[in-house]
């Protein structure tokens, strides 16, 4: 189902619909979504039809007729208690069966990125260079295509400063979260993996594995006056290109304008 | 049409019961009916104010990158829209109807604590004034530099920390927002205790729990929720206020506090609050449908039991508002389970309403039209709820316009259509006059079409990834046309409300033609005059079934037939 094509006449629209999946996590979510959607539509349509039927069929025709005063039927009542129960429990079972895959970063995920929300932008930390410089990109997250990437999502803001030293066994994201600055945000990439909040004082996780392409999203948790402008992009590059885009820059800051970071360019 | 002929002599009550007259009479009254009318007028005023703010929001969002409102103004207005509609309209408007009709329906002369009742009411305009005085908070300037922009609360009706912390929301308006909600919360809790005391202790002889009108059952359960849940939001907001004002750090992560704790406390109240807003509508619909279908409610016991089940389960689904906050998966899965389960008692109600109409003899005066609209619209909102209860689905629609659509199908398509059904149903009882059927039908159809044009496209916008609470959006998202449609729908709703106001004013000037029992009602409010005397009943009625007024009507019809034959 391509909603976007229906609402966007020209070709300049970017896709922010979870229904147009660009990776394995959203594929899985769409499996659940499709089942929930059609169950809801069928259930809703059947009950609506019954309601409309009885509303029209049993209109009053004469002020003198008093209809039969029946008011219970145990078998019927048990039936319409159990029927929704079965439908809802099936949807729950389907959800529960798929959630560990969606929720948990695969143990063998080769890469981790720290996603940092501030008022009002996103930055992405890929680790440090041998000389100890942090490698970061701003606004756009670069990932190698078809690779499991774990994301640690945190929030910060001034007066907290980026941590310069990490305690033993501590990740960059954990070090940021211990400082506890910032407001809540939500990192949302509809076509890849849904969303996860960035909450001061804690590290949340999600993961994605994207097919080659560019994906768009924006913050979905009210974070202040600049909330509407807090957009993010995810670019899934061929692996070689990803390496030179992210790890090729001597300054540590990924240059989004460099040829290596442009999909389809070289 | 059967009219109760009141032939009893005016009793001793008339001389000494409520004699308050004029403005001073209204200001000092402890009569539950006068207090109720003040509740209804005050809350409807706030409905209009909240509605005007909704229109401002919709003008701003009608096209991409619009600059009708600044982002600051936008955040203030959608915050005040949500807060107003919840705390100053839907919750207290049902308390208003409860105030008028619970004592009448149970055959009592007043609420248990009439003075507390007056206090509950007067706290509402007070709370509203405190909250709205935030608009007067000026910006703090240093030379020409704005240090703090001023204005009312602007962190959404949910008021999440740390955004509501003093560092991020410096305006005193945010404190006034908190204190306003506190005052309204006290009003609710006092009202809740009053309702529970009244329903438990003041029922007419023979009115057992098995004969209690379902509207009163719904109020009983609702008010129990109010009393049990409201302390949690009061506590949470008190802690925010302390964090802001005296430097505590309950929710300040940089000082060892926990930002997520606020959300847990907030939703422990605010999810039950959704039921506080919809259960009274369930009760009302359960009165209107049987009367206009000329049948008893189907599955009375199941209807009362499902209200109670929804209330109990309502306390253990609240974490579904927090599926993207990083709680352990096992916790999320539990709450996804309970969220699915709460759909079952809700489904039971819909099937019972359906079965009540089935085989009936339905006439479509305006109250029944709104009840029918309620059934169809609430069904959409209810299914939406189960839909987003699926964790995997929620991860993709959380925080988007899909959720805005869901809450408005429940609270507008459900609660507000229920309120209008109640207004058309009870207007003859309260005023002795009918609202115009012609204007009523126009109002209904405009509102039904308007609300669907407003809220249905929001489903699609959410599935296109449009976040809620954004003050504007880029034109390359493809959201523009649908948003224009939503704005058009919102203005249609505004026109329908205008039609209602015209109807209201015109009808108030019409002659008093409403009999005591215009709809062939079942419950005791139809056993007294329209409007009822200050003491409600000449004699406290005796109750022998769940439909005492129908019993009387049938007995009266049988008596002359017997004497002539």
β content of chain B, as a range? under 5%
Percent helix among the residues of chain B? 55-70%
Strand order of the largest sheet of chain B: 1-2
- Using DSSP, what is the number of strands of chain A? 10
**What multimeric state do the chains show?**
heterodimer
Written account of the structure:
- The complex is a heterodimer of chains A (266) and B (565).
- Chain A has 266 residues and is α+β, with helices and mostly antiparallel strands.
- Chain A has two domains: 74 residues, Helix Hairpins (Orthogonal Bundle), CATH 1.10.287; 151 residues, Cupredoxins -  blue copper proteins (Immunoglobulin-like), CATH 2.60.40.
- Chain A has five helices and ten strands, in the order αααβββββαβββββα.
- Chain A has a five-stranded mixed sheet.
- In chain A, strand 2 and strand 3 form a beta hairpin.
- In chain A, helix 2 runs antiparallel to helix 3.
- The radius of gyration of chain A is 25 Å and the shape is elongated.
- Chain B has one domain: Cytochrome c oxidase-like, subunit I domain (Cytochrome C Oxidase, Chain A, Up-down Bundle), CATH 1.20.210.
- In chain B, a hairpin with a 2-residue loop joins strand 1 and strand 2.
- Chain B is globular.
- In chain B, helix 5 packs antiparallel against helix 6 and helix 8 packs antiparallel against helix 12.
- The mean pLDDT of chain B is 94.
- At the A-B interface, helix 1, helix 2, helix 3, strand 7 and strand 9 of A face helix 4, helix 8, helix 9, helix 10 and helix 11 of B.
